[in-house]
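Morning!

This is the sequence you dropped in the shared folder:
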Amino acid sequence: MTASSQPQEMTSLRGAEAQRIGRRFWYVTGTLLLCAFAVLIIVSFVSAFNDNARIDRLKSHGVSVVVTVTNCVGNIGGSGSNGAGYTCHGSYRVHGIRYQEIIGSKTTLSTEGTKVRGVADPNHPSTIELASAVAKSSSSASVYVVPSVLVLALVIIAIVILRRRRTSRVRKVMTQSASKPLAAQN
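The structure's back. Tokens below.
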């Protein structure tokens, strides 16, 4: 025999051989990821519902207040080269209690002491929005579009995973029954 016809053994450079990851691992991982995706979808629906409820609450039951601007700070954009609005704090009173909070929807610079009209959330008086922003806003069913598309994607992915799992089981059963001797099948 020549040296080229002899079988050559493969050796690894370091450590043990790599182990194959089984189907069960991928099924469990896929199931966990689908569960996390489902939680994300639920949180998206709850957030959309709460936003619409807050808008409706501010429009119908909001407490009108006069807010005194205490300070305004300019915000910069993502690249840091341009302005992206302002964050202004203001003080106001609701039912005799004084609040010092961020004025929501404020996009222009106001000097200290400027008075602006605001609307406080009756359920959370520490939440304040500009009265002009509340007047222009409205609840919308369109906030449910993205969560609905995500539900559709979740259902499609779940169906694909379940079908692959079922077809792999059928293949496994067919392979096992085909490998049994004919006498053993009777």
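Headline: The two ends are 48 Å apart (CA to CA).

More detail when I'm at my desk.
O.
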